[in-house]
Amino acid sequence: MHKDISFLISSAYKPYEQYGKRVIESIRQINSVGFSSEILYCSPEEPNCKDVIWEKDNKMIGSIPAFNHLINVAKGDYIAILTDDHLISSNFFDVLYFLEGSLFANRKYKICTLASGIVGQNIQSQPCRLPEVFGP
User: Fold this and answer.
1) Which parts of the chain sit beneath pLDDT 50?
2) CA quadruple 27, 109, 64, 1: dihedral sign
């Protein structure tokens, strides 16, 4: 079944309950009104979630091979690539308006990052809100 966006998550070495579960929960929390999505999770450990497509990672040779595998399973028009320590902002789907806007109108490939700045133990930055920066 067709989806607007596929979230591809790679997790090779970290326990699901501490890492993978957090990123999946952040995806579930986004305002997805009007959009369809799917979550694909590649890991040695099964997430045991009915709404997550699990692909077992027996080799654990890194995220890139996992993403290459998951992209062949994905059914979304758009792909979001995440590792198990990423969290999704509640306004994530606003990026689709950005990608369909005039800046990307004539581009064959529509690629962007959602990095909102440097965030660390001693550095705090407010997340970038796409409509505020680029308009609806």
Assistant:
1) 117-120, 122-125, 128-136
2) positive
